Amino acid sequence: MATKKEEKQFEKERKKARKERMKHMKEVGIEHFLTPEQIRYNRRQALLGSIWPIFRFLILFGLSFIILYPMIFMVSTAFRPSEQMNDPSIIWLPKEFTLDNVKDVWNIMNYTSTALNTVLLNLIASVLEVVSCSITGYGFARFKFKGKNLLFAIVTLMIIVPPQIITIPLFMQYSFGWITFLNGGDSLINSPLTMYLPALFANGIRAGLFIYIFRQFFRGLPKELEDAAYLDGCGPLRTYVTVMIPNAKTSFLTVFLFAIVWYWNDFYISSSYFTRNDTVALMLKNLDATLIQDLFAGQQVGIRQMIVWLEAGCILSITPILIMYIFLQRYFIEGVERSGITGI
Amino acid sequence: MSINEEIMENEILDENAAPAEETTEQQTESADAPETMGAEAFEQKLEKESKPVKQKGRNIPYEKRKALYGLGFIALWAIGTIYFFVMPLIESLIYSFNKTQPVNGEMQLEWVGLDNYVYAFRKDVDYTPALVAMLKDTALKTPLILIFSIFVAVILNQKFKGRTFARAVFFLPVIIATGPVIDIINGNMSTGGYAGGSEQFSSMFEANLVDELLNFLGVYNISDSLTEVISSVVGDIMNLVWNSGIQILLFLSALQGIPSSAKEAANMEGATAWEYFWKITIPYISPMILASIVYTVVDSFVDPSNDVMLLVLTKSSSWEHGMMAAMAWSYFAIVGVVLGIVVLIVNKLVYYEVE
Questions:
Q1: Is B273 in the A-facing interface, judged by CB distances under 8 Å?
Q2: What are φ and ψ of residue B109, in 5° steps?
Q3: Domain segments of chain B: what residues?
């Protein structure tokens, strides 16, 4: 196996050789070597090769602009004084640059504790969810048992049933069901257990999708791995921990990142079970109401007057996840390429 | 049968060869499958057999043992699903046939049969239009998102400078679009006055332009509805791009899975890029097209900010849980049936390399 560096070297040499061969052919007269169709084909390819990059750049540039447009808007408004929102001479660059909005929102959102709380909640829930979903996915991928297809149909159902259908009954269960013994008989509403418990039992946010991904991935691994482990006297659980998990590292990382992102962004499920604004997403969702209360002293103001603070809140809430993305995006993409998603 | 016997023999050999420590470990592990026998029986057996290196469960055939292990692996999920998914699902189905009244600590139910459903479809002024609009919207959007994301994935799969950056930008929606941020920014942009968000982009494709173009080509009279469709699509390009992050990711990973032998063969035969795309790329990524269709439909279907879901949520906040359940269930049933039909049709066209 050649390393990447060597492969690059080979590629260079190949290109050089091709160039020299081409040069030689041209000197002798190219029609001796190639049919007219081949010459035409080559010419067309060369033309395409020179024009296409320009088009590609234009397309990508335009689409990137559309994607980044809201981000640019966010950055542009979050750091300008509120009065300058109504200044018609300002479109993108404000006349002054201010951090006051961010500071205000930081205080209003109680950012330090909210963010810490959210990070803790996310990390625990995501880890639990990844572990439980991978175990389930492995069970579905590698064992034959009665009723497996039926059970897997339930997994598919988990993907397509919207959480809105089951929220109210779940709410009743959390507040009054026997499960409340975990909280000493009190309602589980507002307790982080409403996030941890489903995650622990492979029923967290989008768990169906994660089980599906893991199943696909484990199905793609060679059977010989387990046979070898079995012959060496490994029980199934140990096989899973010592043989399968190391092989599924990229898949784990990808699912973990997705889980973090989806837990971080979730506001529907958390708004159903948390009456306090304990997470960043919830805080942001209700920021306009909080702003009216805290900043405008209960006065009714339109969205327009609050834009700068809302946008500052947006910046605060996506910064942590953006930083994570910037550092991990390589793994994110590579992981998806190599993980089970490919095998769907 | 003979294979089974061979396996059994192997096991016996294995058992004799294995050191004592490892076998005890196996014993504790096989306790993961409590269904094999009652707990007491198991413990008695364990005591009886702890001295010799004979293992519990060895008298159960290998296949059966594996099935039990499998059940052990999914047990956690099965328990959780019963409590966190199946029970609430059934409960909400029951709600949908009842008039509900939350009274301290429980839901008071009063059986009304299909009344909630009848009301939702026949009397509620918002429900049916929202449902139809939602289905129409999804039917229009899904093919667009698919085409767009295949196109972008093919481009992002090529080698060029700045590819890492381009990929990072195109996957940005994946991490942001599911949260409240993008809704807020979109809302702000439309009230911001000077920058009408997506409208800015659509202004270059003003309705008149399409009209003029068609007239120029000698096509008259169909332009009205066509113009509407085109301008709604172009005006919505922001949402289109922002909703196709995951699909691009899926297609990109499928493109990476195309074996290089297929590429080389196509090159040798002198395939043009066009032929390569239709005869190599599309068949190879067709399973992923199916997956993307399902993902796109489900995603727009469960999105808490779509019209039907908003309606459902208003019912919930006005304490009409029975009505809410009926609406959500009929919505779910309709989308489920549509999705089923689409999957059945598309599945016929999908090319699987390994049968």
A1: yes
A2: -110, 145
A3: 2-96, 116-349
